[in-house]
Structure formats: C-alpha cells, structure tokens
User: Fold this.
Amino acid sequence: MSMGAGMVLDVSGLRKLYRNRRGVSEMTFSLQRGDVFGLLGANGSGKTTAMKSICGLCPYEGDISIFGQPVRDNARNALKKVGCIVEAPAFYGYLSAQRNLELAVRYYDLEDARASVEGALGAVGLLKYRRDAAEKFSLGMKARLGLALCMLHAPELMVLDEPLNGLDIEGMADIRGIIMRQAAGTGATFLISSHLAPEIEKTCNRVGIMHEGRLLETARMSDVLYEYSSVEDYFLSVARLRRDGEARLGGK
Assistant:
C-alpha cells in the first residue's frame, strides 16, 4: 500500500465482525495531514470497532497504514506518532493529574519529560488543578485529563472515540476548543467518532457517515453545508437512501 506525501492514515477494506455479526465491513477511507475527520453514526454502528482496529487493539482483515507503516506488521512502530482514546480515557483516580502524566510520560523517549507534562496540562487547562486527585474531577475535567495523556508525546495523529460522551454543554465546548486549537496550532490530524451531529459539524472539516457497520459516504464539511442545512440532515438523507435501497433489494 503506497502513501502519498501528505497521507497520514490509509484504511482499505477493513473488516472486523464479531460473533453477533456486528462490527465493520469493507471500510475504506484515508486522512491527509491537517484533516479533522469525524465518523458520525449511531451507537453500535461500528465506530469503536474501526478505531480499535486502527490502534492495533484487535485483529482485523484488510489493510491499515499510518504514515506508511502497516499496523498489522508492526503496530508499535506504526503507532509511534499516534495518541488515542478508545472507549474511555484510562488513569489512576487516586493520583493527581500531574502524577498520572508523570507515570505515562515514561513510556515515551522524550528529551524533556517535565516540559511535556506541563505543556500537556497547560494545553487542556488543568495546570491549576495539577495536584488534585483525578477521582475528584468532573466529567469534563476527566475528559481533559484524557486528552492531556494523549498529547504528551506531541502526536501527529489523534484518534478520539466519542470524546464528548456524557459531557454537558460547557464540557463539550471545552473539549471542542482544545481539539480545534491543537489542530490549528500543531497541524495534527484528528480522527473523531461521535453520535452527535452538531458537534461533528462544529469541529470537523470532513465527515464520514457510519451506518450498521459500513462507511456509507465521506465528504468535505464545506460541501455538506453547501447542499444541506446541517450535518444532521446530511446524515439522515444518506441513511435513508441506504435503508430505501435495502428495502427495494429485499422486495425483489
């Protein structure tokens, strides 16, 4: 699989099905440097399965390459420039935000680990809470701590599975702002999954519609909003066409 100079992620024919036949089938898409790509779909549509596969967390069929490195052949090497949150951020609740990052930073070969910890805390607005135990944080602050853990090694690709899940309006706005600042300030590429159409619309420059394990369509956000009044209308239109097509085939 060849990668263009600006190619960050290339997914071709991804297939991962569980015993209940749910998962992902024949998923193909790619990300260029600087993309903020949103996978929009209902719960159970296959978004998390796709992200687990991309991050080397489960076996799969098909091909996935990150910066030209096949994930299946050498996940450790392929994921060096990747930060990810899949399902939920993992940290020690009884430890402070700073201590959680100090433990995590040991996994990376960084010139200045202390500066990396402080930089990540600053980027997510947690510096003044650095000594507070994570278990005392609100959901929004825990989400920010999860992002800080992802950002420790200045990844060039960030894979975020439902980063806004369970957050209130202010929490969603905070996380959205962090993502957009990182994308603009560092040029990092983002792959974000969500079932919240308005948040995908506000955050992403590209969108892909997931429905029952398949990526039905991808489009630039500017093109979507030129043709539709909202991303929600776009999603409903694409999903409806899919259902109508299946109904016609089933009636033959």
User: Anything to note?
Assistant: The mean pLDDT is 91. The beta strands are 7-17, 23-32, 36-40, 61-66, 69-70, 82-85, 157-161, 189-194, 206-211, 214-220. Residues 18 and 24 are 9 Å apart (CA to CA). The longest helix spans residues 231-251.
